[in-house]
Each structure stands twice: as C-alpha cells, then as structure tokens.
C-alpha cells in the first residue's frame, strides 16, 4: 500500500464565490465544482481546496473545517484506527461525492478518507 496522501483542505468562508475567484485569478487554481449552497471546490492539479459557504443557520463558524487523505484501502486504515482506540471512520452521505468517509483524530479534529481522491467521480 502506498502512504496516505494529504489531498484536501476545507475552510468555511463568508463569501465562497469571491474567495474562489481570488484563488483562480491570483494563484491559477481551477474551479471544478460549485454546490447549490454556494460552496466552491478548486484544485491546483494535486491538492483540492473546498471553500464551504458559511450558512447563518449552520453550526460551523468561518475558518478551518477539515482536511482529507487519499488512501488505497479505507478498511485497512480503519483497522489501524481501531487498534489505536480511535473510532472507525463513518461513511459520508451520498450527496458528498468528494470523500467517502469521515474520521476523527484523538484530539477531535475531523478529516476525510477517500479511495478515489478529491476530484468529482467520473460522470
């Protein structure tokens, strides 16, 4: 198995469209997806950046939200977590196509695990 790779960072932001334009225009990132709630997803060809549109009725304040690793086999990684006394990752809802599982580290930080990576699945 190859080493898990950090491939995804997510921030809750006040104006996802404006911030996505900044990263597109100033750092040449590509916008590859927009959610109906206004969230924008960008890539530099390797790392995916999720700009999650802050919602007034949401639970998350602006700032860092979670990160994600691409892994060869979620089950193998899940077994490692169980061996360390950390809860096994749980499957994400089907409307979240960029990562299949959500996990938590010993400090309570959220992170995602994906076997297919953080770009949208092929159509």
TrEMBL record:
This is Glyoxalase/Bleomycin resistance protein/Dioxygenase superfamily protein. Gene3D superfamilies: 2,3-Dihydroxybiphenyl 1,2-Dioxygenase, domain 1. The keyword Oxidoreductase applies. Keywords: Dioxygenase, Oxidoreductase. Residues 5-116 form the VOC domain. It comes from the Bacteria. PROSITE patterns: VOC. It holds the Pfam family Glyoxalase. The keyword Oxidoreductase applies. One of its GO terms (molecular function) is dioxygenase activity.
């Amino acid at each position: 198995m190859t080493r898990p790779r950090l491939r995804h960072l997510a921030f809750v932001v006040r104006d996802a469209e404006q911030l996505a334009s900044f990263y597109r225009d100033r750092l040449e990132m590509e916008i590859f997806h927009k959610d109906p709630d206004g969230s924008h997803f960008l890539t530099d060809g390797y790392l995916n950046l999720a700009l999650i549109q802050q919602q007034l009725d949401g639970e998350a304040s602006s700032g860092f939200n979670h990160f994600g690793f691409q892994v060869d086999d979620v089950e193998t990684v899940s077994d490692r977590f169980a061996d360390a006394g950390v809860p096994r990752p749980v499957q994400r809802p089907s409307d979240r196509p960029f990562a299949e599982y959500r996990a938590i580290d010993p400090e309570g930080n959220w992170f995602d695990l994906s076997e297919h990576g953080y770009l949208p699945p092929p159509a």
